[in-house]
Amino acid sequence: MIEDGKVVSVNYTLKNDAGELLDSSAPDEPLAYLHGAHNIVPGLERKLTGRKPGDKLEVVVDPGDGYGMRDPRGVQDVPRNAFPPDAPLEVGASFVVETPNGELMQLHVTAIKPGPDGVDLITCDANHPLAGERLHFSVEVVGVREPTDEERTHGHVHGPGGHHH
Length: 165
Ligand code: ZN
What we know:
binds zinc ion, 2 helices, Thrombin, subunit H, elongated
């Protein structure tokens, strides 16, 4: 049975309100995660507690229990020449920057538009791409096992469907 500390394997698909497929596990490679370690969004993790292999469930997760609400303050237009010349800037790219107080923050390029002085403006968004979305998961539990000591220490799963490092 799924409970905190167990390694859980699931096949899943994720759709938005419009029914568009956003993400899914690869065929023949279920996602493996450590239950209770916040490897997956809280709204889904909670619904999986107590389930067992073979269970199939449909879970709708509100943004607050998913990737959070969109924060408009996370969106900024930055002139192209503020980036290193070789920065791979294109819509859909993401990169990590260090904030003035030393935190690492992932930014996503959501638009590139001409600026008033001929320098392109790069729209950078610190929100998760799925922030503000209601998430529709279709999940099948395929496995539950005990973690290895190393997995327990790292707080995530190693091997197929998990981390490789
Ligand atoms: Zn690890």
